[in-house]
Structures are given as C-alpha cells and as structure tokens.
Amino acid sequence: MSVIFLILPDFLLIALGWSLLHVWRFTPHFFQQLEKLVYYVLFPALLFQSITRTPISANQATTLFIATFGLIAAGVAMAWIVVPILRPDRAAHASLSQTAYRFNTYMALSLAGAWGNQAQTTMAIMLGFAVPMVNVAAVHALARKNGGIVKEIMRNPLIIATVLGLIWNLAQLPFPDTLGVTLDRLGACAIAIGLLCVGAALSLHASRGRERLIAWMIAVRLLAMPVVAIIIGLVLDLTLIERQVLLLFAALPTASSAHVLAARMGGQPQPVAVTMTTGTLLSAITLPLWLAIAQYL
Which of 34, 127, 149, 175 is the most buried (most CB within 10 A)? Predict the structure, then answer.
C-alpha cells in the first residue's frame, strides 16, 4: 500500500474533527467528554487487546523497553539542550518541552495496525512503556509545587492496561472469546473517535515571541527523533518489524494531551496548541517520507 494512502484516512478523520467543531458547531464540551471516554475506556481496551493478541517473550519486552527508553531520553535531552542557546522564558519552555517527546497515540496504533497484528502489538508495548516516561518528564518540567507524580502515574488507565496486558501475555493466560469480541468493538471506536478529538483540538492562534522555540520542538519531534530511532534500531539489532515500528513511533506528531497538561498545571497552553497543530499538519509531509524509509531498513 502506498504510504500516502496509509496515512490519508487518519488525516481525513482529523479534518472531520476540526470541521465538526468549527463548521457544524459541535461544542468544546462535547469533545472534552468524548476524549474522556477514549482515555478512560476505549483506548485502554484497545491497548490491552493489542498487547494480548500476539505472543511475546520476556526478552522481546525487555529489548523494546530499552529501545523506547533510549528514544524518549533522547527527546527529553534535545528538548532541554536548547535552553542555553535560545534562553527562552522558563514557563514557556516548561510547557513546550513536552511537545518534543510526546506522541499521538491514536495515529500510532492506527498506522501500526495497517501493517498487521504483530506491528500493532509491538507498537502497543512501546506505547505502554512510553506513557509513564513522558508523563514523568512532562509533569516534572511543569510541576514546581505539585508532588503527585507517582500517584498520577499509578492511576493512569493506559499504564494499567499495558501492565495487565503484558502479564496476561507473558503468563499465556487463555482469552475468552466473548471478552475478545467486546474489547475488539471498544478498540475499533477508540482510534476514530480519538482522531476526531485531535482535529477538534487544532489551533493556530498567534504565539508571538515563541516562534524559534516552537520551530525547535517541531524539528526535534518530526526530524531528529526518527534519526535517533534508526540509530537505536541498529545498535540494539532489533528485528525488521521492530525497527520499522520504532521509526514510525518516533516520526509521530506530538499529542493533543500536551495542551491539556499545560493548561491543567498552570503552564502556557496557547503556544503548545500552536506547536501541536503545526506539527500535526507538517507530519502529513514528513510521515510519508519516514514510512518510505522504513521499507528499506
């Protein structure tokens, strides 16, 4: 399948989400409730089902953890190395730094799923490992007076679904057909609804004085991170499918949840929204290029 047609359905859903809010006048409250449904119910079901679908070994899980940790650590480092160069406003940098290493989970599983069950399982495991990593890094950057990082991570539904899925898979527990069908139907809703919510969150309101910092974070997210992923895949001698999925994971635009976190923790959500929107639009160009490269790894 052409890489253009691989990513086109996701961007059409994102465009539809934007249209529902701005053209057909669905309310922001509607999308807030919809995103809560995806976050707490639909996406955990999809993660759990994806991880339990294809058998994995403890060695494979360990290797994927190391690869994911290395990639996220590189993203965090590149997000902070710019501080002595650009000398940005501290509050703006704390809010924007997360956009360099956070990722769009809906696009991740959607695109990986187009490659088959093994790719989607590999992506689901990487997502599960990466969620606590990026949350710790982002919350730590924003929280000067907030000490509830551990509690927030322990209650994260995506982490809970990942841990349960790994335990179930590694223990080779039987999977009831009825439960499988139920999770399949929940998961089928997760990606489509999640991408609609991404579209509704797009915003290009001006963010004066933050242009260079925004450009840096987008360059790290869409250009530097995929290069790091290729290097990690070679150093760790990952399998072909693992190298391809790691590259796809690294090439994703940042998550709309970055804007939510910045607003919730007293940061600067407006430049985060601009960064997320610009990065998502530019990824329509960069993603096909990286996916084409993935075919030759």
Answer: 127
Tokens representing 215 are 């450009």
- The C-alpha atoms of residue 285 and residue 274 are separated, in whole angstroms, by 18
Q: What is the DSSP letter of 276?
A: H
Q: Pick the closest to residue 245 from 233, 258, 260 (CA basis).
A: 233
What is the per-residue pLDDT across 12-27, written as a single tens digit (0 to 9) for each? 999 999 999 999 989 9
Look up residue 33 and give its two tokens.
Answer: 């409730």
The answer to pTM > 0.70 is yes
Q: Residues 6 or more apart from 216 whose CB is under 8 A from it? A: 82, 86, 100
Angle formed by the axes of helices 240-251 and 225-235, nearest 10°: 160
Cβ atoms of 135 and 156 closer than 8 Å:
yes
CA nearest 56: which of 158, 124, 134, 130?
Answer: 124
Query: For residues 103 and 111, what is the distance between their CA atoms, to the nearest angstrom?
Result: 13
Number of H helices, E strands in the chain: 16, 0
Extended beta strands in the chain, E state: none
Q: What is the DSSP string of 85-96?
A: HH---HHHHHHH
Q: What is the pLDDT of residue 146?
A: 47
Cα distance between residue 21 and residue 281, in whole Å: 17
3-state helix, strand, coil in the chain (%, to 5): 80, 0, 20
**What's the rounded Cα separation, in Å, for the pair 128 and 160?**
9
